[in-house]
Structure to design on (403 residues):
């Protein structure tokens, strides 16, 4: 076990002072939980019954049985399950099957998944400072350690050569992993104010675009290593999910405001398009073949449609309601898939853009917040189930893929 922590107060990840309630097991919680994350993750959690805390603990750390019993009793007593929206299951004709794998390093908090061209599934171990690779056929897993400690790997994307690019959310660089050699190349960001590199995506010319949580959008030319940054017109914005349309134009959504941003691929000039509801907080975004943007409104519990040609916006209430917190999203043809992270257990949601009908499924592990997902070349889905330390493959019935 790690060295003992004597202080009664622990800082959260954003610097808040956290005071745990007195009780048997408190000291173990302080020692163990603060090794990977701030205690605010415990105190601000939605709480669990004992079984839920046990499932979460098992995905985070391995403790001796006597210590685990103390910790579970303490957490269940002082941080019981808070009321959360129940998962709403809508039946339909489409069939799916889930396969989930616990990643090797406990407490990794897999953030973004990647469906690679060779059929493998990759993930970012945000709290373990690794990138991971899974062969879904054999179940074999391998983790690649990063050079810089506490990089906080976040988003993932592969280039045509099979290299895996990632954003170092806790540091100021974007990285590239060569899976054949394990070599990591870091591309430092030129502006000290450029913090929180977030989601990466390649355009048709091989230029890497990425969002930053510090009111910026960036790009890297892999051929030269040149990095350029552009500041958003609205201060204190939070560029989050990003896509590139068929014309090579990057679009992103702003998680701190009701807006979509369009980036000129040549000049990097940014034009912002407001969404109608001031309370909208789009988090992730996907593109259908007609270049229409679909976004998950995390704050209001909506699926949204934004047509860049007309500026028209349409929205549909997510099945789980206003507190369902829609999050990771992907498009397979004209079908939208996304997760509801605010319901228990998390759900996988399917939306047919032609019939405007929903179908939903419960994620077997509970999901633990599915922050992102990606479609495979075969029309299946890969998910990162952060809170339960898993990655998942969702195989979609062949009839649905034929649409």
């Amino acid at each position: 076990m790690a060295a003992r922590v004597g202080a009664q107060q622990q800082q959260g990840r954003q610097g808040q002072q956290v005071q745990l309630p007195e009780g048997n097991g408190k000291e173990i919680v302080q020692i163990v939980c603060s090794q990977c994350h701030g205690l605010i993750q415990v105190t601000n959690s939605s709480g669990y019954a004992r079984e839920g805390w046990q499932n979460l603990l098992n995905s985070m750390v391995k403790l001796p049985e006597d210590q685990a019993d103390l910790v579970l009793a303490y957490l269940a007593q002082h941080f019981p399950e808070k009321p959360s929206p129940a998962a709403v299951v809508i039946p339909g004709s489409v069939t799916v099957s889930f396969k989930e794998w616990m990643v090797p390093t406990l407490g990794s908090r897999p953030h973004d998944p990647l469906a690679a061209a060779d059929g493998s599934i990759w993930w970012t171990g945000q709290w373990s400072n690794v990138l991971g690779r899974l062969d879904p056929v054999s179940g074999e897993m391998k983790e690649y350690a990063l050079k810089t400690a506490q990089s906080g790997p976040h988003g993932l994307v592969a280039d045509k050569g099979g290299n895996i690019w990632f954003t170092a959310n806790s540091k100021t660089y974007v990285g590239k992993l060569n899976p054949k050699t394990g070599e990591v190349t870091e591309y430092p960001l030129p502006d000290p104010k450029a913090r929180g590199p977030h989601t990466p995506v390649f355009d048709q010319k091989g230029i890497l675009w990425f969002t930053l949580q510090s009111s910026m959008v960036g790009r890297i030319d892999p051929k030269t290593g040149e990095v350029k940054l552009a500041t958003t017109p609205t201060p204190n914005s939070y560029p989050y999910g990003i896509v590139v349309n068929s014309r090579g134009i990057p679009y992103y959504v702003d998680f701190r405001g009701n807006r979509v941003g369009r980036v000129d691929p040549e000049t990097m000039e940014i034009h912002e398009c407001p969404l109608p509801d001031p309370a909208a907080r789009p988090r992730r975004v996907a593109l259908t073949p007609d270049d229409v943007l679909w976004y998950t409104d995390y704050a209001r519990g909506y699926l949204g449609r934004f047509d860049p040609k007309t500026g028209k916006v349409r929205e549909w209430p997510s099945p789980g309601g206003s507190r369902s917190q829609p999050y990771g999203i992907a498009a397979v043809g004209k079908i939208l898939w996304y997760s509801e992270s605010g319901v228990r257990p998390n759900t996988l949601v399917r939306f047919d853009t032609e019939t405007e009908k929903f179908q939903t499924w419960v994620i077997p592990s509970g999901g633990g917040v599915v922050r992102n997902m990606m479609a495979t070349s075969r029309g299946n889905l890969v998910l990162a189930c952060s809170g339960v330390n898993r990655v998942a493959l969702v195989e979609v019935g062949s009839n649905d893929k034929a649409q």
